[in-house]
Design a protein that fits this description.
Largest sheet: 8 strands, parallel
Order of helices and strands: EEEEEEEEHEHEHEHEHHHEHEHHEH
Shape: globular
Bound molecules: zinc ion
Radius of gyration: 21 Å
Oligomer: single chain
């Protein structure tokens, strides 16, 4: 099966020109001007862009969390991604505490196998890493899992301590792989949450009010400092605030290999959404929480100047009626997450390129 797409505006990481693209058996084999090749199907792309497929490096499909499971599985989630121009996503397998990470990888492969509309890979969420398990990281790398995610948030669930982070980073460095960090001080945040609940503050808006940006910035600073001492690069996931970005910039300015992604929700939404009537605000309960609107300009600036390297979605949808409702009497029980995998490319194009904030 071959397809020839003619007269498109071809956009690559380095080029922008009018041209044709020839695809043989699902692989791009020729790009050029006025290609003279036979094809089973010819598509006229006049007046249209021809982008490479998008890559979303952060999704949670079919993920158990907060007493329920994210509402998209690998079939519906990857279909949505394909409709939005994303042709590869990297999801997260989760190690069950006390069990092998390789077992977790098998579990997640079984969830995805045969169901996906696009390409996919996995990061491994490491929830414990005793010395006798460190060697698994190399085995994961050999199996194609070259990034591990660790959490400074969610004590008692996904949280790992700084010693574990250091151990994982050292080993990741040895293997030429990388640690991704959910950087928020979950220990302090849990204390703030406890106090809020004791004072009867149970509505969705307290999700944001109990997760100060300073606690994100502290996590980012700590993650980068530990990585610096371990002499490895580090990748901060879903960076949401100017305070946190400042820490990444400071580190990069002194030559540390710190990288970070942000997400459309932090570029387009803000904490005023939590003020909506009744329980509506629960739709916007995600972690990190939505921030004050002025942070958005700083994040766009971070993208423009290269201090933020990518835009992921952290796609993790929960249905309002059956799932978000679990937290009707207690904001800390609202499943954290929202959708985005279908809309990422168009949002970034419209809000970024069309609005003159970033270049094509
Ligand atoms: Zn996530």
């Amino acid at each position: 099966m071959s397809v020839l797409i003619k007269n498109g505006r071809v956009i690559t990481a380095v080029d922008d020109y009018m041209g044709d693209v020839y695809i043989e058996n699902e692989t791009v084999s020729l790009i050029g001007k006025n290609l003279e090749v036979e094809a089973d199907e010819v598509i006229d792309a006049s007046g249209k862009y021809l982008f490479p497929g998008g890559l979303d490096p952060h999704t949670h499909l079919d993920m158990p969390f907060g007493g329920t499971t994210s509402a998209d599985d690998f079939e519906t989630g990857t279909r949505a991604a394909a409709h939005g121009g994303t042709t590869t996503l990297i999801d997260f397998a989760i190690q069950t505490k006390g069990h092998s990470t390789l077992e977790a990888l098998d579990t997640w492969h079984a969830k995805a196998d045969g169901k996906t509309a696009i390409d996919y890979g996995f990061h491994m969420i490491v929830t414990d890493l005793e010395d006798n398990r460190v060697h698994e990281m190399k085995m994961l790398a050999d199996a194609g899992v070259t990034s591990y995610k660790l959490f400074m948030a969610y004590p008692g669930v996904l949280y790992v301590d700084d010693g574990t982070i250091y151990r994982a980073m050292r080993q990741a460095g040895e293997n030429g792989t990388v640690v991704c960090m959910h950087a928020e001080n979950g220990i302090v945040i849990d204390e703030i949450v406890k106090i809020a609940l004791a004072e009867g503050k149970t509505e969705p808006k307290y999700h944001a009010l109990t997760r100060p940006t300073r606690m994100e910035a502290e996590g980012v600073h700590r993650a980068i400092s530990i990585a610096e001492v371990a002499q490895v690069p580090v990748y901060i996931v879903h960076l949401s605030s100017s305070d946190a970005l400042e820490q990444v910039m400071l580190a990069r300015n002194r030559g540390v290999h710190a990288f970070a992604e942000t997400c459309p929700q932090y570029l387009f939404l803000d904490d005023s959404y939590y003020e909506q009537e009744g329980f509506e605000g629960a739709k916007y309960v995600m972690t990190p929480a939505l921030r004050k609107k002025w942070n958005q300009d700083e994040l766009w600036k971070g993208l423009r100047f290269g201090d933020l390297q990518s835009i992921s979605t952290d796609h993790c949808p929960f249905c309002f009626k059956d799932q978000k409702i679990l937290g009707i009497n207690d904001f800390s029980k609202i499943p954290n997450g929202g959708p985005g995998v279908e809309n990422r490319m168009s949002l970034v194009y419209n809000g970024g390129v069309n609005s003159g904030r970033i270049s094509l």
